[in-house]
Design brief:
- 28% of the residues lie in helices and 25% in strands.
- It is of the alpha/beta class.
- It folds into 3 domains: 36 residues; 202 residues, Rossmann fold (3-Layer(aba) Sandwich); 182 residues, Ribosomal Protein S5, domain 2, CATH 3.30.230.
- A hairpin with a 2-residue loop joins strand 11 and strand 12.
- It is globular.
- The protein starts with a strand and ends with a helix.
């Protein structure tokens, strides 16, 4: 009988190495290689030789859309594409204390009554701790079945039967371990084996599976990226500790659109869905203040208005400071270079602070024009046009490029009382209801904000 082989696997990226090293060659992580046992090539070849033939079917067929289980939480159903699909495996990640366990307990309580048995298994908390949380949330009367366990074998022995629960929640996958493996819980081998066993059970019994995952200091789910490939949907919980808003974002969804978001507000009764997040994000906005602009963005299929704040101040440092919250710092550096090279504004001697109010993180390039408007407003000391929203992508040549979902952005702006929109050149008849100001070049923004012409600004700078 061939002996099993021993390899060294990186706990950050999952790459296998023939021998131990202090640094992983694939991802560059230090002290992340752990020795693991794998099957020998002869055993793998033996199993391949005795495989069975599989049936190949044509692409055309009579497949119906999968059924959905309504969780009772509208924002969660929106992120999942209309509800929870039976047999789907869903991975939820987020910072500690952001509200992952709270949301899962609320979803379990909402699903338990109409859909049947719901099991909540925690490897981090005792049953009494979960009951105390349910008492604070007012969910103690919900027929949710609780357990505290870390062995995947024990969990499957409890729930793997013909009357399996409709939903199984595991908190968290990093605490689960599989018998027969020498590695500690949380390692690449244990994570892969535990997730594979739970997902196999979910597909076989038609039980919806929700796995709560830890995140690293970079905000990524801890463990190998193969874990995200194994599941059907990956959701991230975002938000700042100082804000009451929480954003649930789908970065992967095999049964619905990706990049969809759900907005929640942290209250005493738990996470409360926010049906109109635009009004909530703009509730504390003050009109007529320099250094602020309203961005009409798109998060998935939902239009969302948010305030972008900028502060430009003289710098006493050799290298001016750039502080960014809620946006890409590299994109800010690019935009500042365009403002200096194409519009004549001197940014190399200014400290620039940028903040997206409400704790939301913007990822789409359509925010370029709104960020530029906030920066120009702060530099000139003049407020942006009253009742105006901004959106558009800025190129390196200073051109303002068109973005998608024009009608949805303008409709959301009009619904919240905005009467003007500063947008890229349309090339077609604009929708009615909102006054349109079209920009072809970023330099035109200076004239709109009441600043000097580009040539005069350049002469003043030189």
């Amino acid at each position: 009988m061939a002996k099993p082989q021993r390899t060294h696997v990186c706990q950050s990226c999952g790459a296998a190495h023939a021998k131990w090293a202090g640094r992983c060659d694939d991802c560059g992580a230090w002290n992340s290689l752990v020795e693991e046992t794998t099957a020998s090539p002869a055993a793998a070849a033996h199993g391949k030789a005795h495989g069975r033939r599989i049936e190949l079917v044509p692409l055309e067929g009579k497949s119906r859309p999968p059924p959905r289980l309504a969780s009772g939480i509208e924002e969660l159903d929106r992120v999942l594409g209309g509800g929870i699909v039976p047999g789907a495996a869903i991975l939820i990640g987020g910072d500690p204390g952001i509200g992952k366990s709270t949301l899962m307990l609320q979803a379990a309580a909402a699903l338990a009554a109409p859909e049947g048995e719901v099991a909540y298994v925690s490897g981090e908390e005792s049953v009494d701790q979960i009951r105390l949380r349910a008492l604070r949330l007012g969910l103690v009367q919900s027929p949710v079945r609780l357990a505290s366990a870390t062995s995947v074998g024990d969990v499957l022995a409890t729930v793997d039967h013909p009357k399996a629960p409709a939903l199984l929640i595991v908190d968290s996958i990093q605490t689960m371990w599989v018998d027969g493996l020498e590695q500690a819980p949380g390692t690449v081998t244990q994570l892969r084996a535990a997730a594979q066993a739970l997902i196999r059970f979910a597909k076989h019994r038609g039980t919806a599976l929700m796995l709560i995952g830890h995140v690293t200091k970079d905000g990524q789910i801890a463990g190998p990226r193969v874990l995200e490939h194994m599941v059907d949907a990956v959701l991230y919980f975002e938000g700042e500790r100082g804000h009451q808003f929480r954003i649930l974002r789908a970065v992967k969804n095999r049964f619905g659109p990706a990049n969809e978001i759900g907005v929640f507000e942290m209250a005493e009764a738990g996470l409360v869905p926010v049906p109109n997040p635009s009004a909530l994000f703009l509730a504390d906005r003050e009109d007529g203040v320099a250094g602020a602009a309203v961005f009409a963005g798109m998060e998935g299929s939902r239009p969302l208005l948010m305030e972008i704040q900028a502060l430009v101040a003289p710098s006493g440092l050799a290298t001016p400071r750039r502080a960014v919250v809620g946006w890409d710092g590299n994109r800010l550096a690019m935009l500042l270079a365009v403002l200096e090279a194409r519009c004549g504004l001197v940014m190399s001697t200014r400290d620039v602070y940028l903040n997206v109010a409400g704790g939301l993180r913007i990822q789409e390039p359509a925010a370029d024009l709104a960020v530029a408007a906030a920066i120009v407003s702060s530099e000139l000391g003049r407020a942006a046009p009253s009742g105006a929203v901004f959106f558009g992508e800025v190129g390196l040549a200073g051109e303002v490029r068109a973005v998608g979902h024009l009608e949805a952005r303008l409709k959301e702006a009009g619904k919240l009382g905005f009467s003007r929109a500063v947008v890229p050149r349309l090339g077609k008849e604009p929708p009615s209801g909102v006054e349109i100001a079209e920009l072809a070049r970023l330099a035109d923004l200076l004239g709109l904000m009441g600043g000097p012409p580009v040539r005069a600004a350049r002469l003043a700078a030189g």
